[in-house]
Structures are given as structure tokens and as C-alpha cells.
Write a structure and sequence with these properties.
Length: 119
């Protein structure tokens, strides 16, 4: 331990992994689940606003606000991910494209497509 040689607000290694701060993919799971929740709230408020028992204007306005915020958040996140992927070197980008394609996983399991079969 540093015994006072580091600022008091530095975090320790206990319970914190260095890849958590450097990887956007760690945060994306939580962000996208929050955006789905916002979209769900917008949909529920729209359903409430269009129901026959709702005579108030507030659910409609709050539903529009939730929908606007969810769409804006999702759009911003997609643009940031697109920007981050553009910054990758071509070798790593090719690896990710191959990793997340369907044919890469089929080759690992020994699956041969009809177009690849030879008579």
C-alpha cells in the first residue's frame, strides 16, 4: 500500500477491475437496459393517456418526454459506438466482424452450409 503517498480519493484494486473503466461494452448492457425501461415507460404512459378513464393531459406529456429522451439516448449511444468502432485498427475490426458473423460460429461447430458443400 502507498501509506499516504496517493490521494485519498484513489480507488483500490479490491472489487474493481481495470477493464471496467476501459471497456464501453461493460457499460452498454446497463445503458441499453435503462433505455428499454424508458421506452417501456413511454409506451405504458401512452396506453394510459389513450384509455377511456384518463381525463388528464399529464400522462400524454410525460409519455412524449420519455419517448423523446429514450430515442435521444439510444441515438447518442449508437453514434458513440459507431465512432469507437471506426477508431479500431483494421485488424481488430476484421476480427470483430468475423467473430460476430454467423458463418464464424458455424465453422467452429463443424456446420457446413449448402453453398460450401462440394459434390
Amino acid at each position: 500500500r502507498a501509506l499516504g503517498e496517493r490521494p485519498s480519493m484513489d480507488i483500490t484494486v479490491d472489487g474493481y477491475m481495470t477493464w471496467m473503466s476501459s471497456r464501453l461494452s461493460f457499460v452498454l448492457v446497463f445503458l441499453l437496459s435503462a433505455y428499454v425501461f424508458q421506452g417501456h415507460n413511454a409506451y405504458v404512459l401512452y396506453q394510459i393517456a389513450t384509455s377511456s378513464y384518463c381525463q388528464e393531459w399529464q400522462p400524454a406529456v410525460v409519455g412524449v418526454i420519455y419517448a423523446f429522451v429514450a430515442f435521444g439516448n439510444l441515438l447518442t449511444t449508437v453514434l458513440v459506438v459507431k465512432q469507437k468502432l471506426a477508431l479500431l485498427n483494421p485488424r481488430k475490426r476484421g476480427y470483430l466482424r468475423k467473430k460476430y458473423s454467423v458463418s464464424f460460429h458455424e465453422e467452429d461447430r463443424g456446420v457446413v452450409r449448402d453453398s460450401q458443400k462440394m459434390d
